[in-house]
Structure formats: C-alpha cells, structure tokens
Amino acid sequence: MINDVHINHPVELDRHTLHLFRVSPVSMFLSSVTGKLENINPALIKFLGYQQEGIHLPDFITEHQNQFNLSQTLLNTIETDAYDPAVIDFEFQHQSGDIIAAELTVIPQLDKAGKIVSYISQIVAVPTQKIATEHLQLASLVYDKSSEGMLVTDKNGVILDVNSSFTRITGYLKSDVCGKNASMLSSGQQDKLFYDLMWNQINSTGHWKGELWNRRKLGSVYPVMISINTDFDSNGRVNKRVALFSDLTEIKAKEKQIFQQAYYDTITGLPNRSLFIERLNHLINLKSSQESCIALMLLDLDGFKEVNDTLGHEAGDVMLKETAERLLLCVKENGEVARLGGDEFTIILHDINLIENTVQAILKKLSQPYTLENEGIYISGSIGITLFPDDSDDVSGLLKRADQAMYTVKRQGRNGYSYFTHSMRQKALDRLTSINELREAIEKQQFVLYYQPIVNLSNDEIFKAEALVRWVHPDKGIISPDQFIPIAEETGLIIEIGKWVVNEALQQVYVWRETHNVDFQLSVNESPLQFKSDENSFKNWFAYLKKLDLPGEAVSIEITENLLMDSSESVDLKMQKFKDANIKISLDDFGTGYASLSYLKRFDIEYLKIDKSYVQSMEQDKDVLILCESIIQMAHKLGILVIAEGIETQSQLDILNSLDCDYGQGYLFSRPVPVDEFELMITDKQHQS
Ligand code: C2E
Ligand code: CA
Ligand code: CA
Questions:
Q1: Does residue 480 have its Cβ closer than 6 Å to ligand 1?
Q2: Distance between CA 525 and CA 537 in Å, rounded?
C-alpha cells in the first residue's frame, strides 16, 4: 500500500531546490521517505562515468536503484534528529566496475509542517583520495623501512621500483635496475625446469614462495627466501608484480654450522653416529623397494688404546684422522665412511660384490705404518661384516651383528675380518662340533688307512702304494680327508693324526715287505703345516723306522710344491735329514702351485706327481698335453721319476705311456681300498704274473 502511495505521488522538490539539484557540481541523488531512489543529478551521472547524452533517466534510475537505496536503519537515525544531516561512509560501483568509497551526506527535506518528505544525498569522493594517500604513505613507509628487499615489476618483469633493503642486499642502486628485467638478478643456479614450475604457479595463482639463489652486483651468489605476489587490474589482467625477499646467507651459514656440529665428527670430519644412522636408515628404505643388498662393516682398530696411552691423545687424534683418510681412499665412491666414536668406524657399501676387495684394501692400508712423533707406529684393524637384508633389516640389528662379527675377529687374533651371516654361524657351529668330534676321533683312534696302488707303467707291477687316511665316524660313516684335514690343520690336530698315520703306514709296509715284496714302498702324505711347524716329525719317522728295522726307502713322503717355495731353514733342514736317512720325497699335486721345474734342482726329489687336473684335461687341451710332456722330459733330465695321478681312462694311460711317464695312479687301476682288499689285489696280480 505504501509503495502505491509513492508511485502515485512522486517526490516533488520546490523549484529552487530542483534548480540547485540540476546545476550543482556536487553529485547528488534524491530519495523518497522510504529511502527509495527517485532521481539522480547530472553531476552524479558524470561521476559514475557515464555520458549525460543519450541516457534515459527513468531507466538509469531503475538500473541504479539498488546501490543508492538508503537503508531503513539510516532513515530511523535521521528521523530522531531531523535537522541534522547524516554523514556516512558509502560505497558504489563506477561504470568501469571499480568500487568507489565515498562520503554521503543525507539531508532530509521537510514540508511546511516540518515533516520529512524526501532526502537529498550528496556524494563526495574526496575522503576516498585521503584514504588512498594514507595507504600510500603507510605502504611506502613499510616499503622503505622494511628489512626485506622489495622489488616491483610491470607485467613483463621490467623493474619499476626497488627499496633501500634491495640495495643493501644486492648491491644494486635503484638506477642500476629500474627499466631492466628482473631476470638480471638470477644466479643461473636453478635450471629451466625450476623457473618453469615457478612461473606456472605464478601464472595460475598469482603468487609463489620459495628459496632460490640470486647474484649480487659484485658477482657473489646468495640464497634468498622470496615471495612474489601479483597485483591485478579490475579486469583480472596483471598490473604489477611485487617480490619480497630476505637474504638467507647468514641463516644458511648458521644452519650449516649447526648441522656440522650435530652430524659430523670434529676430529676426522667424517659423519658421526647420528648421521650414520640417518644415512643407513635412508638407504634401507631406498633399497627395500629395490630388493638390493647393502653391506655394513664395523671396524675397530687393534691396539689404539695403547697408542693413546703411551703417545698421548694428540697422537691418538692424528691416528684417527689418518685412519679416516685411509678408509676414504679405500672406499671411494662405493660407499660411506663414518666414525661411531672412539676407535670405531663404519663403512656402508652400496654393492656387496665389492666387499672382498674393499675389506682387503682396508686391511692392507691399515697395516702401513703411521708416522706419530717421528716414529713409525703399526696397528691393525678388526672388521665385522653384516648384510642387509640377509642378516637384519634394521639399523640396530645390523650394528649388533656387525659388532658380533667384529668380536669374532678380535677373538681369533685381530687383524682380519669376519662375516655375520646365519649360514656363517651355522658353519662356525658345525666346525665347532667337528673339532670336538675330531679330538675324540684321535683319542678313540677312529681312523683307518686306505691304499691306492701306484703302478709301474713299463711292466704293470705294483710295488708302491699311497696311504690315504679315512675317518670312520661312529654316526656318519667314512669321512674323506678333504672334509677333515683342513680343520685338523687349522686346529693343529693334524700333528696327532700325522703321527698315527706314520705309525700305521710303517707297520703296514713292514708286513708287505715281508709277505709281498721286499722292495715295497708306501707313500705317506705329510701336511705342509706339519712339515713346517712340527720340529719333531722326522724324529717320529726315524724312531718308527728303527723300531721296525726298516730302511728309509720303504717310505716316501708326499709334500706339496708350495712348501718348497717358502723354504725356511727348518724346511731345508728337514729335507736334508730325510735325505740322509734315505727317505724318498715325492712332490705332490705338481702343477697346482708355483714351483718351476728348474727350482726343483735345489732339492733332492725322487718322485714328481703330476696333478690329476692335468691328466684329466690333457686329451681336450693341447697346451696341457705339451706341458705334461715337457714336465716329464725335464723331470727325467733332473733324475726325477714321474707319477701321473688320477688316471681314469685307457686313453689317458695310452698318452702317458707314449710320453714316457714312469708310474700311474688312478681309478683305472683301483680306487683307494682297505688293507684286505689291497692285499687281495696284489696277490691276484702276483698270481697273474
Ligand atoms: P692327494 O694326496 O692328492 O691324494 C690323491 C687323491 O686323489 C685321493 O683322494 C684319491 O682318492 C684321489 N684319486 C686317486 N685316483 C683318482 C682318480 O682316478 N680320479 C679322481 N677323481 N681322484 C682320484 P682322497 O683319498 O680323498 O684324499 C684327498 C687328499 O687328502 C689327498 O690328496 C691328500 O692331500 C689328503 N690326505 C689323504 N690322506 C692324508 C694323510 O694321511 N695325511 C695328510 N696330511 N693328508 C692326507
Ligand atoms: Ca698324495
Ligand atoms: Ca695328489
């Protein structure tokens, strides 16, 4: 109803006021008592950015109805104090779309009775400019006093303005950079991809924040934290870009120092335990997805404590430093070296195929003297090795196992390395039981000798045989010497076994010389270990020979060629004693070691046994055949008889015969057999001939 009233009774201004309304340079509009827009003056039309000509006023008013309606709240306040114009902040939209802030003065129009009949509002945009100025002043204050460097560019990246902090940080004056492209500041340390990603983000969101390296006027490169923002115009086009940046040089240096202190060892400069753990963890995560292995070595220096105690901590530090350098040289880019603390170092190897080479190189490098206080000091290292993921799949498990492996080395006399693997441990356990069982075997005499004939190739006669030991194990049956001789050698038990073999063999040869052939000769193997270390072994031989009243030539001792190579005095002496007693020496497994034939001249050797590997490949490999031929010829020239081992086929025998080989041994004639079988064989042979 009220609306109808207003439509029917449009607001009327008196002539005088209406004139003012039309000609005033001040923007004004007229509202009804309900606040509804009724009229707009030409100044306001212009102020809003429109041309007066061609405007259809009623339509224009309808179009702008909403933004110039006076709110009921405002009208209520005016009504209570009708003679005071209300001044309020007001916003409206310019033809360009910009929002304009203005001050609105609303003046009520009264009739003669003093009743409000309409409102005239004046719009003044001056205060808007004031705000802008204040903003600007504030902005430039911030802009200039800020410790952050600031830089304003146009939409093409051309620098429009910079602040004083910019000059302080970069060394460039405003005049150096204004009008130039901001790219002049870049260091070239980030690649194209980096900038592509950065600009992608700026173009899509208007801003970017991150770290990058810029170049100062004098050339040095420095890290900055930079944030770039974009100022868009009313149509969403880029107007300007503002970059704010701070110099991170000091922060970075501090960070680096903190990192260095937290993660690196001060003495050696190597990563410390914390960094090592972090690195190993990282690698474990990385490798887990690749299904590949890494090796962890734990190195503990042997005798470092003594160095520290006698030469002092400074010398100790020098030694640690030098050790670190040596380790780095051995590991190179194949792994990572760290110092866990004290004299403990770790090495992570990325490729387990490099373990053996690396560990050997390290032990060798450590064995070189350290020059401390003008003295050459020698130490060594004990290294425990463990594998990821075989032994453990976490850092502490790996460290624990490497430690266990390292202590195994310490127990075994240091200066070496040992693996921790389950199979290794199993092997170690097996070995332990074997050792105990072997001890028992000696006590209980669980050994027997088998005999293998050595045949004279010129007449097929068997006047020689080789005694080969067997272990008759109560549960496992007959065990071949290859399986227990190495353990017997390592533990020294070989000496007891050797004594038993000599005793047994001499009793047997005594019998066969009585019953079969007076010239019968038995070959007996003597371990190089025994030959070298057991001073008394020849005394045993003499004692037994004497007891049985046997001449020396009843036996031949089989030794390996390598024994001759490291001829120590005791070896020479022993050889001489055997020779004096007329005990024959056979050189076993010839060709597998490194003795040359000419070298043999020095020793008085009766027999040379060509290794079975030669015999077995001489048919296929011409070089081997030629080698066998020349071995036989040379040996003959030196007065040495040749025995070919491992003859399995007739054709091998034929070749050896044609090469003038003296004796043969092998499955073709017979396997090693127990006494009674051997006796049967030789009596049969005797009956045949
Ligand atoms: P060896 O001194 O080279 O002994 C010859 C080995 O070759 C024997 O192995 C023998 O059975 C094997 N053999 C003989 N003919 C053939 C053949 O035609 N083909 C093949 N494939 N093999 C043949 P065995 O008896 O197992 O002895 C192994 C090694 O154990 C011996 O090698 C020797 O080094 C050591 N050994 C044996 N008995 C003793 C011993 O009483 N004392 C010491 N210290 N070592 C012994
Ligand atoms: Ca032998
Ligand atoms: Ca042999």
A1: yes
A2: 13
Contact (Cβ atoms closer than 8 angstroms) between residue 327 and residue 362: yes
How many residues in total does the chain contain? 689
- The model's pLDDT over 442-490, given as tens digits with 9 standing for 90+, comes to 999 999 999 999 999 999 999 999 999 999 999 989 999 988 998 898 7
Q: Which ligand gives the minimal distance to the CA of 613?
A: 1
Helix ranges (H only) for 378-447 are 395-411, 422-443
Q: Indicate the pairing of strand 370-372 with strand 344-349.
A: unpaired
Q: Can you tell me the distance from the alpha carbon of 102 to that of 392, in angstroms, rounded to the nearest whole number?
A: 76
Ligand 1 atom with the shortest distance to the CA of 672: 11
Residue carrying the six token digits 């430690």: 403
> Tokens at residue 352, please?
């387990």
Q: Looking at the CA of 485, name the nearest ligand.
A: 1
CA-CA-CA-CA torsion sign (11, 17, 22, 24)? negative
**Are the CB atoms for 420 and 385 separated by under 8 Å?**
yes
pTM here is 0.49
185-218 b/e (C-beta count within 10 Å ≥ 16 → b): bebeebeeeeeeebeeebeeeeebeeebebbbee
Q: How far apart are CA 501 and CA 482, in angstroms?
A: 16
Q: 667 in ligand 1 pocket by Cβ < 6 Å?
A: yes
